[in-house]
Amino acid sequence: MSEAYSPIPELNLLKEFEGRIGRVYYSDGFELREYGADSGLDTWSEHPDFLSRFIPFARANGSGSDYALWRCDDRTDLATLPVVLVGDEGHLYVIARDLMELFQLLLIDSEPMYDFGFLDAEDVEEHSEGHHEFRVWLKQTFGLEPPEDPHALWTGREESDDRFRAWASRFIELDDR
């Protein structure tokens, strides 16, 4: 039996990084949690076709928001699936088009992540304790830097979010954006 954190190599590498730096935040409020564990999605809908399409994997903030991969199709490379924010204040939307985009957004180092559409990395005055190590690790491991234009990333994910909202509306009522 494999001792890997998940079937996703990119998340396994992040889990190893987390293990090396210890119990410090490297992006405000973000931390991996048990892969596939309950994330409160059943408070939105208990329909099996809804719940089976999510793979929760991380906390988004300290108050109960989570990240989950949305199985929008049957692709085998799970790292390319859209990432959904399951918010503790009733938010449910695509925050990133894939894991690499989420990792890049994490470099902004902002909780509760709802600000991505409005923040640049330079706007954050104080970074998390492990932020510098995370930034170096992302550069060395994936060649990722902070987004040059977070607004463009935020706008770019809208197509995925529109698709997500159309799908989710079959099971739940979503608030207007």
Q: What's the arrangement of strands in the largest beta sheet?
A: 1-2-3-4-5
Q: Main sheet?
A: 5 strands, antiparallel
Radius of gyration: 16 Å
In total, the number of domains comes to 1
What sequence of helices (H) and strands (E) makes up the elements? HEHEEEEHHHH
Describe the global form.
Answer: globular
Low-confidence runs:
112-118
The end-to-end distance, rounded to whole angstroms, is 43 Å
Number of strands: 5
> What percent of the residues sit in helical stretches (DSSP H or I)?
25-40%
Roughly what is the average pLDDT, rounded to an integer? 87
Q: Output the structural class.
A: alpha+beta
Annotation field: number of helices? 6
Tell me the β content.
Answer: 5-15%
Quick rundown:
This protein is α+β, with helices and mostly antiparallel strands.
Task: Please characterize this protein's 3D structure.
The protein is an alpha+beta fold and 177 residues long. The protein has one domain. Helices cover 31% and strands 12% of the residues. It has six helices and five strands. It has helices at residues 9-21, 48-51, 99-106, 131-142, 150-156, 158-168; strands at residues 31-32, 54-59, 66-70, 83-86, 92-96. A hairpin with a 6-residue loop joins strand 2 and strand 3. The longest helix has 13 residues, at 9-21. It is globular and about 40 Å long. The protein starts with 8 loop residues before the first helix and ends in a 9-residue tail after the last helix. The model is unreliable at 112-118 (pLDDT under 50). This is SMI1/KNR4 family protein.
